[in-house]
Design a protein that fits this description.
alpha/beta; Glutaredoxin; globular; 108 residues; 36% helix
């Protein structure tokens, strides 16, 4: 796992998320989404703080609407936490760094 946020599309979502071992937090977002942009610095911090423990992956649902449909994304931002490729938690809406860190800590 890296200390940077990875972007995933239909071609690499399986490799980065569904076939990956360990925790992965997927941020389903869109460029026009203000709350998504507001949450970006918190996700950057988490990527550095949880490097080696949790991958942070962003999916632009405007560019990859098939993934939005596959995971029933109806509101943005939606963050889905995966463990070993299986969804274990989901949060909707703008969350603080503290709230997101608590979610990760509960599931490490």
């Amino acid at each position: 796992m890296t200390t940077t946020i990875q972007s995933a599309g239909a071609d690499d979502f399986n490799r980065l998320v569904l076939s990956a071992q360990g925790l992965g937090l997927v941020d389903f977002w869109a460029p026009w989404c203000g709350p998504c942009r507001a949450m970006a610095p918190a996700l950057e911090d988490l990527a550095a703080d949880y490097a080696g423990d949790c991958a942070i992956i962003k999916v632009d649902i405007e560019a990859h609407p098939d993934l939005g449909k596959q995971f029933n994304i109806g509101s943005l931002p939606t963050l889905v936490l995966f463990r070993d490729g299986a969804e274990i938690a989901r949060v909707i809406g703008n969350k603080s760094r503290t709230q997101l860190a608590a979610l990760l800590d509960e599931n490490l």
